[in-house]
Amino acid sequence: MANFLSKLFSSKLLAGSDNVLGVDIGSSAVKIVQIKKNGGDLILENYGSLALGPYAELAVGQATSLTKGQVVGALGDLLRETKINAAETVLAIPMKSTMFAVIEMPELKRKQLEEVIPMEARKYIPVPIEEVALDSWVIPQDEEVSGKGRKKVNVLIAAIHKETLGRHQDIEAELGLSGGAFEIEIFSTIRAVARKDSPTALIVDIGATTTKVALVKEGEIRNTQLINHGAEDATTMISKSFGLDFAEAEAAKRGLDNAHDANASKISHVVDLSFSPIFSNIERVLSDYQRKYNITIEQVILSGGGVSSAKVQAMAKSMLRRDVIVGDPFAKMQTPDVLSATLKEIGPEFAVAAGAALSAFD
After folding, report:
1. Which pTM value belongs to this model?
2. Residue 350 and residue 298: Cα distance in Å, rounded?
């Protein structure tokens, strides 16, 4: 698996590290995964999650936008609670804080491309180029279309506001974390749940407020898109429909798989109404990608805390009409047998943190 956009977001300090912490600062929770390398084996050393809602006087599980100081406080609490002792850290940067574009470029040498890309990026990045940190990645050419005479290549460009990058650097510094490495969350997810020998797949990461979608072929990204809807939509609708507070609505949603009371079918219907637009958007993206790249997307890999219920997984299979599997980021490392069932259940919500930590060992 490639280190996507490594020129901008990796750090030489990580070279040779054998104990790395991946950090995912989401909208509703912060998650961490610590991985240790022992010889040729990767071992899960530690993991943990902490809801961010209470730090803004909101409910557990509720999305919020915290100040830098509040994030430092929450992450610091989680590090103390889990007694993390990793030597180096990789922080994932939320996709909603980035800008992406796939552009067609002349087939030039890498040095020439690097000179041309900033000029081309100005056409696609809606802010002054001086205000962002910019990197690019040449998308691998498919053998069937990369034959003699090909004159163009597709380049994925990513831009992050320097202010956002500085905020994450400050968080790391205030907590005394070392490494200075960063990665955009969708690349971490891909690393955690996709495989080089997997069929052409659509990675779908449903978070609290957004859904990230990425087209992946042979383990490499081809395109990506952000959908501004997430699992919290269902909780909010349940809350309004049944007069429940957020915590009660979230519990009702999460308990659907085992619920048999009179309200279960009504709540299930509300979840259908909430998730249908999400999967309709995903189906639209899937169809667009198939048409644009003249490919068949054979598989959908689900990830993120929003896909943990059997109800949502069944909806994905029904609406997307593909082979749908749930990503398991812990499958790429050794884990204690006693935790197998637990890690299988919670795996989707730890994909970003796990993938960030795994980036240090590529």
Report:
1. 0.91
2. 24
